[in-house]
Amino acid sequence: MIYLTQLIYIREGQEQAFDEFESVAIPLISRYNGQLLFRCRPTPDTILEHNTEVPYEIHLVQFNEESDFDSFMKDEERKKFLHLKEQSIKSVLLVKGVKL
């Protein structure tokens, strides 16, 4: 089992395009032995401390194998909507981990 945490930073004014991409991408996770465990949008009142820009969203996803994640990334339906991701996302910090 692998775990992926994404800190997602979007371009100002591109929230709708981002949400449109996520509405396609998130349901595809389960096709590849994955599960979205956690998705949140931090707000000023939920951040206790920070020394960097606060992300627009934070995702925690699990996949059975790294190859499942690789297959998800190559999904043809997801690829059709990558223009929305490229339009809306400024950057992503991806942290890979395993359960201890």
Name the helix and strand elements from N-terminus to C-terminus, one letter apiece. Answer: EHEEHHHE
Mean pLDDT comes to 96
Level-1 CATH class name? Alpha Beta
Count every beta strand, where a strand is a DSSP E run of 2 or more residues. Answer: 4
Strand order of the largest sheet: 2-3-1-4
Q: In this structure, how is the largest beta sheet organized?
A: 4 strands, antiparallel
How many structural domains can be distinguished in the coordinates? 1
Percentage of helical residues? 25-40%
Report the uncertain regions.
Answer: none
Assigned CATH architecture: 2-Layer Sandwich
Strand content: 25-35%
Give the termini separation. Answer: 11 Å
Q: How many helical stretches?
A: 4
User: What is CATH's topology name?
Assistant: Alpha-Beta Plaits
Radius of gyration: 14 Å
- Taken from the alpha-carbon principal axes, the silhouette is globular
Structural class: alpha+beta
What report would you give on this structure?
The chain has a four-stranded antiparallel β-sheet. The mean pLDDT is 96. It is globular and about 35 Å long. The protein has one domain (2-97): Alpha-Beta Plaits (2-Layer Sandwich), CATH 3.30.70.100. The protein has 100 residues and is an alpha+beta fold. The protein contains four helices and four strands, in the order βαββαααβ. Helix content is 33%, strand content 32%.
